Amino acid sequence: MTLRLTSRPGGASASGDPRRGGVEFDRRRPGMLLDLREVVFNLSGVLDFVGVTDINHGKRVAFLSHAIGQTLGLNRHHQARLFEAALLHDAGVSSTREHRVLVSAYDIPDAYGHCERGHDLLSGCAPLAHLAPLVAGHHSAWFELADGAHALDPDQRLSANIIYLADRVDAMLTGDDLTDPLMRRDEILGVLDRESGDRFAPDVVEAFRAAASRDALWFGLDADALPIELAPMARDGRYTLVSFPVLTELASIFAHIVDAKCRFTATHSVAVGAICARLAALAGLNEDQQRKVQIAGLLHDIGKLRIPDTILEKSGPLDAAERATMNRHAYYTHQILRQIQGFEDIAEWAGSHHEALDGSGYPFGKSAPDLPTESRIVAVADVFQALAQTRPYREAMPMARIREILGDMARARKLDSDLVGLAIDHADTLTACGRGGVCLDQVAMSRRASRSRLASTWAARSSRACSTRAS
Ligand SMILES: [Fe+2]
Ligand SMILES: [Fe+2]
Ligand SMILES: [Fe+2]
Which ranges carry the HD domain (predicted)? Predict the structure, then answer.
């Protein structure tokens, strides 16, 4: 089958002059010129989505951690690592229920599971692996971190403890919308003073006290002030060539986080990414395009992190209000990705995965002329994989039925007929490819699991320490 490639609408391209705000691709080497800090900053925003209505927890923790680090006079490198780890500290939390428990009170039970999951995810991703020990230790008391059993260097111990304190300060403030955070200052400092030398390092408590003496620290936590406060830290200002394998690893982390949100969609994003890459190759796209479409496939559903668990897991049909909430996820995906310079195309393709050629899709109501081949590939891969997966409201479908439904959707001008033809002709290859993505993924997870002994040790030791202190 020959595929007619659709031209990009409006000449949309990732090429351009970086000085004018665009990003130029280096055609001699496989990768993208990106500000890696900007990528991490914006992708970490999806972790905050888990708060649903309160979507700034990670950013507030990063803001407070940065303020403590500044007061302590940490060097630039140490500050950068602290800030990024604080943004990603809850990488192990995908469920809105679990998030609510973690930020609902100062003292919480069983906090170590998400530390371990976050550690495992980050340690398997080259550009983020250096942050994993800090994430693993962000609910461990100072007296445990300082006893030398956790194999952290002094800088890592200090950073993990700073994030822990910032996280608990935010937990004390969360849920109290009515009181100005500044009014809670003395009460919060009183709690932290009692924990000094035990849960928190005395130096960290003192640094927070000094930072908290400025009213501006508390005003900076407001939703409208926070983006302005964080803007100077949100990008590094330097563009480096990030290779496609590294970018794919980075995107896979966030694919895992969204897949972990719901047991019915476990592995969905990872499989869609793999199917996208294969379908793009079958459609004759070049290697760079294949890799970019794979990244779009991996990230297409990251907006689902903002959809409440109750809607994603509902076994019956969604009512009108639930459907309206659910349909927002593609818009959220687009909003997050479009903020990354160099990701403009990826944002378009990922955010358009529920659009239809006849204009009946969502959230932008695009139609055929607005949907380039790459967007159409993500849409076909998404439907193909979803039909093959059990959902709360139906069982996984056999291949014959999947072929039928895809054919119907192509005839109704929901999906691209050429791409559907390719998917039908190569259904077995695509299925194996989706499974292969999953298999490779499981290998990677088992490798990470063997590296997670450190975090397990933490959990066991910390549980013992807590029960000792409680008795
Ligand atoms: Fe947290
Ligand atoms: Fe979706
Ligand atoms: Fe999807």
Answer: 54-172, 265-387
Cα(330) to ligand 2 centroid in Å equals 6
Ligand sitting nearest the alpha carbon of 298: 3
Is residue 444 domain-resident? no
Domain of residue 123 covers 36-236+452-470
- Please state, for a pLDDT cut of 70, what percent of the chain lies above it: 83
Q: How far, in Å, from the CA of 327 to the mean position of ligand 1?
A: 27
- 107 CA → ligand 1 middle, Å: 12
Give yes or no: 304 in active site.
Answer: yes
pLDDT in tens, 367-386: 999 999 999 999 999 999 99
256 C-alpha vs ligand 2 centroid, how far in Å? 15
Residues 180 and 218 both lie in one domain: yes
Q: Which ligand is nearest to the CA of 102?
A: 1
CATH at 151: 1.10.3210.10
Residue partners of 395: CB distance under 8 A and separation at least 6: none
pLDDT at 19: 30
- pLDDT value for 149: 58
Active-site entry in 261, 304, 366, 414: 304
202 lies in the same domain as 263: no
Q: Cα–Cα distances in Å, from 328 out to 215, 302, 321, 324?
A: 37, 11, 11, 7
Which ligand is in closest contact with the Cα of 270? 3
Query: Angle CA(67)–CA(70)–CA(74) in degrees, nearest 5?
Result: 135
Phi and psi torsions of 221, nearest 5°: -80, -15
Give one DSSP letter per residue of 423-454, joined into a string: HHHTHHHHHHHHHHHHHHHHHHHHHHHHHTHH
Ligand 1 centre to CA of 62 (Å) is: 10
Residues of the chain with pLDDT under 50: 1-26, 438-471
428 class by beta-carbon count within 10 Å (0-12 exposed, 13-18 middle, 19+ buried): exposed
What confidence score (pLDDT) does residue 413 get?
97
pTM: 0.81
